[in-house]
Design goal:
Bound molecules: flavin-adenine dinucleotide, succinic acid
CATH superfamily of the largest domain: FAD/NAD(P)-binding domain
Number of strands: 23
Structural class: alpha/beta
Strand order of the largest sheet: 9-3-2-13-20
Number of helices: 15
CATH architecture of the largest domain: 3-Layer(bba) Sandwich
Largest sheet: 5 strands, parallel
Distance between the termini: 45 Å
Length: about 550
């Protein structure tokens, strides 16, 4: 097996991984491994913006309060404090590096989204904020000669020896490479692809969460999946996000009969918390026996719409929808994972040498429901902190300790595909037809049984169906798509088991059989692998 040694390994090139790499390189060589082209990530597609208390009418204390309120009683207050207090510095630094946020005259333009009590969301090119962040951060890391980028390289598993993480096995061009490092940062993003309806790009398959779980890391809050209320619902169109900023700028929701309805569900109407808007939409869809509702911005000036939402305007136009004139068919979709690999405030996990940051991690900053536009900020703040902490802490270790032992342990990926069948187009993409079917069925199952509204019966059904595919967890795959299926199945089980364990409704986790918040509202559900398998669900008391 090919062996590469570096000081620091970063897995993922979204906002969190890139921001961490900029700090790590101050103490040594860095390799950034990414599954696709470097920009392919949720970060790249982020629309609404980045929340930060920088406007004249705002204060970090108010941003703190709004975040805590959105988190529905489960935020880790210390983590929120770090986010809102360090956020302004991280944004100003990004502007110094060349980020251009939209302006009103000479001042930054701030928009508003659901559950924010102030206009505090900076945006770029109207609705392409994430693209701007990726552009600036990728340019920044290109300026360091000692950051090496490996694209089309998929992390398979961590190298764990003597209880310590010593890098990761990476699949590149059909070959497994051991990338050995003093510290490894997982920044692989969320897991939206586990659901058949999602805003997330194809790379977001929960890999980091599954990889960490297999290695013995603790994961927390996995039941909290945020569903975005307004995602394009049109036969030939992709599941394209229609930013909450549109509602921030006055867009109205209407049912199929063109009636407004949000006031019937919440006093904040269209700007109620996301989980409430998503459930209201589902309720209207059921009442009207239809598959979607409408988002309506037609009352706003066409010139304003085209200038404020240029990317959304042009994308919808490609699917015969003119958002300045037409009602836009929408329904909710899986969007963001509040849960993930449990870390401290510096990205450290329970495994020595292993760090996590961004959507893959759970610092507790979002509690049971994330405040809109807080995650790009989280990637910057916690990516930075993980980089700053991991570098000096791990740098003193001798590089010579970081070679994989000559005799690979039993966990070394074997790189075989046991179920490979005839050389059809499907096999080329990495999965045999039966596995492609599992992938589709799994995503549909999660959407139907573990989606916006869950109950004990639907969750138990899901566990039973997922268990039929458990043999996949023991398979070795030598293709990205095969590895993704295994990871998606792992994460699907973790989400479902955690959802079963929380017998109450809180934040984004809504159980129709336990509509009240329940006794365990002060608790976090954590999962760790045991010899009995995935069923290890524990509760621990809420952290301050
Ligand atoms: P990502 O940006 O998802 O990056 C993950 C990286 O890991 C990618 O490079 C991926 O290729 C790589 N990767 C994954 N698995 C592997 C593997 N096995 N091996 C190697 N590499 C791997 N948040 C906001 O704050 N504001 C917004 O306006 C906003 N809008 C959004 C719009 C959309 C459509 C979506 C999907 C999300 C939006 N979010 C928004 C959420 C936010 O974009 C994400 O939470 C955030 O960008 C996550 O950053 P990250 O660095 O953790 O992960
Ligand atoms: C959006 O633009 O609606 C997405 C914002 C977010 O998820 O934070």
């Amino acid at each position: 097996m090919k062996n590469i040694t570096t000081d620091f390994l970063v897995i993922g090139s979204g906002v969190a991984g890139l921001r961490a790499a900029v700090e790590l390189v101050r103490q040594g060589e860095v390799i950034v491994v990414t599954k696709d082209i470097p920009t392919e990530s949720s970060t790249e597609y982020a629309q609404g913006g980045v929340a930060v208390a920088l406007s004249d009418e705002d204060e970090v204390g108010i941003h703190f309060e709004d975040t805590i309120k959105a988190g529905d009683g489960l935020c880790r207050e210390e983590a929120v404090k770090v986010l809102v207090e360090e956020g302004p510095e991280r944004i100003l630094e990004l502007i110094e590096w060349g980020a251009e946020f939209d302006k009103e005259g000479t001042k930054p333009a701030f928009t508003i989204e659901a559950a924010h009590s102030r206009r505090r969301i900076l945006h770029a090119h109207g609705d392409s904020t994430g693209k701007e962040l990726e552009r600036v951060l990728i340019n920044k890391i290109k300026s360091f000669k000692t950051i090496r980028r490996m694209q089309f390289s998929t992390a398979v598993d961590l190298i764990i020896e003597d209880g310590r993480c010593k890098g990761a096995y990476v699949l590149k061009d059909g070959e497994i490479i051991a990338v050995c490092a003093k510290s490894t940062l997982l920044a692989t993003g969320g897991a939206g692809q586990v659901f058949s309806r999602t805003t997330n790009p194809a790379v977001v398959t929960g890999d980091g969460m599954a990889i960490a779980y297999r290695a013995g890391a603790v994961l927390e809050d996995m039941e909290f999946v945020q569903f975005h209320p307004t995602v394009l619902f049109a036969p030939a169109a992709p599941q394209f996000l229609l930013s909450e900023a549109m509602r921030g700028e006055g867009a109205i929701l209407r049912n199929i009969f063109k009636e407004t309805f949000m006031k019937n569900y919440h006093p904040d109407a269209e700007l109620a918390p996301r989980d409430i808007v998503s459930r209201a939409i589902i309720s209207e869809m059921v009442k009207t026996n239809n598959s979607h509702v409408y988002l309506d911005l037609t009352h706003r000036d066409a010139g304003f719409i085209k200038k404020r939402f240029p990317m959304i305007y042009s994308t919808c136009l490609r699917y015969d929808l003119n958002i300045t004139k037409d009602l836009i068919p929408v329904s909710p979709a899986a969007h963001y994972m509040m849960g993930g690999i449990k870390t401290d405030l510096n990205g450290a996990t329970n495994i020595k040498g292993l760090y996590a940051a961004g959507e893959v991690a759970c610092t507790g900053v979002h509690g049971a429901n994330r405040l809109a536009s807080n995650s790009l900020l989280e990637g910057l703040v916690y990516g930075y902190r993980a980089g700053v902490t991991a570098a000096p802490k791990e740098a003193e270790i001798q590089s010579s300790e970081f070679r994989v032992r000559e005799t690979p342990n039993s966990k070394t990926p074997k790189g075989t595909v046991p179920d490979l069948r005839t050389p059809t187009g499907v096999v080329e993409s990495g999965l045999s037809p039966s596995c492609e079917e599992v992938r589709t069925s799994l995503r549909r199952l999660m959407w139907e049984k573990v989606g916006i509204i869950r109950c004990g019966v639907s969750l138990n059904d899901a566990v039973e169906s997922l268990s039929k595919w458990k043999h996949i967890l023991d398979m070795d795959f030598s293709t990205r798509r095969g590895l993704e299926l295994k990871n998606m199945l792992t994460v699907a089980l973790l989400i479902t088991e955690s959802s079963l364990a929380r017998e109450g409704s809180i934040g984004a986790h809504y159980r129709s059989d336990f509509k009240e918040r329940g006794e365990d509202r002060q608790r976090h559900i954590s999962v760790i692998k045991t010899t009995e398998g995935i069923k290890a669900v524990q509760s621990c008391v809420k952290q301050k």
